[in-house]
Amino acid sequence: MALTLEDRFAITELISLHGHFVDDGQLDRLEELFTPEVVYDLTDFGQDPLVGVAAMRAAALALGAGNPVAHHVTNVVVLESADGRVRARSKALGVRADGSCGSATYDDTLVRTPDGWRISHRRLCARRVPLNGVTGPG
User: Fold this and answer.
1) What span, in angstroms and rounded, lies between the C-alpha atoms of 80 and 86?
2) How does pLDDT run across 89-113, given as a tens digit for each residue?
3) pLDDT-based confidence at 116, cuts 50/70/90?
4) 49 and 39 Cβ atoms separated by less than 8 Å
5) Among candidate residues 109, 112, 89, 122, the one with its CA nearest the CA of residue 22
6) Tens digit of each residue's pLDDT (9 = 90 or more) over 7-51
7) DSSP letter, residue 2
8) CA dihedral 57, 61, 63, 69 (to 10 degrees)
9) 109 exposed, middle or buried (CB, 10 Å; 0-12, 13-18, 19+)?
10) Cα(first)–Cα(last) distance of the chain, in Å?
11) Cβ count near 14 (within 10 Å)
12) What angle (nearest 5°) sits at the alpha carbon of residue 83, between those of residues 49 and 37?
């Protein structure tokens, strides 16, 4: 399947909408972004993966004031795999109420549904050290 420019735009917009929905507290709209059985992989943060939109919603509500006040996404790259899967990689910045922030990478797998593109798997990887820990010689 060859992705069209319209597909790439729709996927990029879908990824961007996540921050708007979460920051606005519109957790009832997550089905517009994710498949019902989505796997939201938080293992890099020491948590088990969340399975399903309901689990994502419950986790966000349970975290309450611990949620970032702002989610920003940038550097979205959409890739087609030889196996026909569509993947997207993007950078995420989360800003907390105290002004501190963190950086992560979203690695997404997307599927086309009758309602448009949806994320079926998202893996979050925290960025904790410069250059992802790569160091130079000696």
Assistant:
1) 5
2) 999 999 999 999 999 999 999 999 9
3) very high
4) yes
5) 122
6) 999 999 999 999 999 999 999 999 999 999 999 999 999 999 999
7) P
8) 90
9) middle
10) 46
11) 20
12) 30
Rounded Cα distance, 43 and 26, in Å: 25
Evaluate if residue 138 carries a pLDDT over 90.
no
**Residue 67 phi, psi dihedral angles, 5° rounding:** -65, 145
Check if the beta carbon of residue 123 is closer than 8 Å to that of residue 106: yes
Q: Looking up tokens 């992989």, which residue turns up?
A: 41
CB burial of residue 22 (10 Å; 0-12, 13-18, 19+):
buried
Give pTM, 2 decimals.
0.92
**What's the angle, vertex CA 28, arms to CA 6 and CA 73, rounded to 5?**
50
Q: Are 99 and 70 in contact (CB under 8 A)?
A: no
Which pair of tokens denotes residue 80? 């087609």
Give start and end residues of each alpha helix (H) in the chain: 5-23, 53-63
pLDDT at 136 over 90: no
